[in-house]
Design a protein that fits this description.
This protein has helices at 11-23, 44-56, 65-82, 92-100, 104-115, 119-137, 142-148, 154-165, 169-174, and strands at residues 2-6, 28-32, 35-38, 60-62. It is of the alpha+beta class. Helix 3 (65-82) packs across helix 5 (104-115). The longest helix has 19 residues, at 119-137.
C-alpha cells in the first residue's frame, strides 16, 4: 500500500516521515519524495496519528487522486532539478509523461487548474532556485551551471534569471542580502 504526503520536498522531510513511521510502529519500505510504501496493514488509528504527527512538521497526508497526481508532478520536477546530477536531455513534457504515465496535455491542464501556474513556470522557478544554490556554492561557473541545467546558452540562463529575480546572476552572487534561498515548498 502506498500513502502520499503533501509538501514532502527534501531529504529532511523524508527523515521526518521515516521517524514518524518508526515512532508509530508502522512497518514501511521505501520513503520517497511525496510517497511511502507501507508494508502490511496500517490501522485507521495509526493513519490518523500519522496525519497528526506529519501536520506538526508541516506535512499533510493526501487522499484525493488529483491532488496526489499534482504532488507527483511537483516531486518529479523537484527531484529532476534539485537532486539529479544532470537534467535529462529530453523535453520536460516527454519526461513527465513517461515518468507519470499520463498524457502531458492532461497533466498540464490539471496542474494549471489546480495550482494557478503552468508546469513550465514551476520548472523555471525551480531551475532558478537551483541556479542560486549553485552560484552560492561557488563550485561551478555560469557556463557549467548552464550546461548542467540544460540551458541552450549562458545568455538564456542569465536572461531567465534576471526575468525571475530582477538581478543578473553575477550581481546576485555579489549581494549578500539576496543569498537567502526560498524553501522548496514555497517555490
Amino acid at each position: 500500500m502506498k500513502i502520499h504526503i503533501k509538501y514532502m520536498v527534501s531529504i529532511r522531510c523524508k527523515m521526518i516521515v521515516r521517524e514518524a513511521l518508526d515512532k508509530l510502529g508502522i512497518d514501511h519500505g521505501t520513503v520517497e519524495l511525496g510517497e511511502v510504501e507501507i508494508r502490511g496493514h496500517m490501522t485507521p488509528e495509526q493513519y490518523e496519528q500519522l496525519g497528526i504527527v506529519l501536520l506538526k512538521s508541516g506535512l499533510e497526508l493526501l487522499e484525493d487522486k488529483k491532488a496526489v497526481l499534482i504532488e507527483k508532478i511537483k516531486h518529479t520536477i523537484i527531484e529532476m532539478v534539485h537532486y539529479s546530477d544532470n537534467l535529462p536531455h529530453v523535453n520536460f513534457s516527454d519526461y513527465l509523461s513517461e515518468k507519470l504515465h499520463y498524457d502531458y496535455t492532461y497533466l498540464a491542464n490539471l496542474f494549471s487548474e489546480t495550482t494557478g501556474t503552468t508546469i513550465e513556470h514551476f520548472i523555471i522557478a525551480h531551475k532558478i532556485e537551483r541556479v542560486k544554490e549553485l552560484l552560492l556554492y561557488g563550485e561551478l561557473n555560469l557556463t557549467e551551471i548552464s550546461y548542467k541545467l540544460n540551458y541552450s546558452s549562458v545568455a538564456h540562463l542569465s536572461s531567465q534569471f534576471k526575468k525571475i529575480t530582477g538581478l543578473t546572476p553575477t550581481f546576485f552572487k555579489q549581494l549578500k542580502q539576496y543569498r537567502r534561498r526560498i524553501p522548496l515548498e514555497e517555490v
